[in-house]
Amino acid sequence: MKLKRSERMVVISNYLINNPYKLTSLNTFAERYEAAKSSISEDVAIIKKAFEESQIGEIETVTGASGGVIFTPTISDEDARSLVENLCERLAESDRILPGGYIYLSDLLSTPSILKNVGRIIASAFKGQKIDAVMTVATKGVPLANAVADVLNIPFVIVRRDLKITEGSTVSVNYVSGSSNRIEKMFLSKRSLKPNSRVLIVDDFLKGGGTITGMISLLSEFDSELVGVAVFAENAKVDRDIHEYKSLLTVSDIDVKSQKVEVEVGNIFDKSKA
């Protein structure tokens, strides 16, 4: 369809935002919008400048016969920190304390606007690394993992704690549950993850780290590699074997008796943490 330049730039921008990390040739746009390749190139240059100045994302131009453009979503440090600081305040609300010293997160992890921005923050924290899939366990972390995978435009796989016939053939590992300190088992369908994948593990709350350790063990069963671990929140008062991870929020203290929660910004903005 033939479009004016202003109209063309709108639809190209929309396409790039909805197809992140995907290489698209300029010829695709030229044929779709009945425009010269040189005109499309000029359009992309203008969009690239606007996206970068507004910190919406970056557009990379790949030269050569099989080249094109790739859009990488970003979020400004200012916006990211503002969001995380706001989440700190919300997580510190006294009515979030649950029996056993747990924190209620479901409302935050079911709000689309929060998930979308948290997904962008986590994806940005692993910018430049090749990631083939996002992995999580079948709990409240599923929407979060889905949000990160959506930003990265890659699949996400769900590890389950119980065997389901609909999963087909599965691989299982034993792990020590951080909450119960018991040996438990987790399962992953053989069809869920391709061998030699580079995987980002995402979870909602890091306490003892047993669940994440179990997922890391599963990766070795699939001959896959761990890129990193990202969690929405962590409990700083619990000793754990996992030391390399990124967290948005750190719960530094939970006082059940006085119903007080102390929450700080996690290490997500610390460039030295992997």
Description of the structure:
The structure is a single chain. It contains seven helices and twelve strands. 34% of the residues lie in helices and 27% in strands. Strand 5, helix 6 (141-152) and strand 6 (156-159) form a beta-alpha-beta unit. The chain has helices at 5-18, 26-32, 37-54, 77-91, 112-125, 141-152, 210-221, and strands at 57-62, 68-73, 97-98, 102-103, 133-137, 156-159, 170-176, 183-189, 198-206, 225-235, 246-255, 260-265. The protein has two domains: 5-73, Winged helix-like DNA-binding domain superfamily/Winged helix DNA-binding domain (Arc Repressor Mutant, subunit A, Orthogonal Bundle); 77-265, Rossmann fold, CATH 3.40.50.2020. The model has no long low-confidence stretch (mean pLDDT 90). The strands form four sheets. The chain has a six-stranded mixed beta sheet with strand order 6-5-9-10-11-12, sandwiched between helices. A two-stranded antiparallel sheet has the order 1-2. The longest helix is centred in the N-terminal third of the chain and has 18 residues, at 37-54. By secondary structure, it is of the alpha/beta class. Helix 2 (26-32) crosses helix 3.
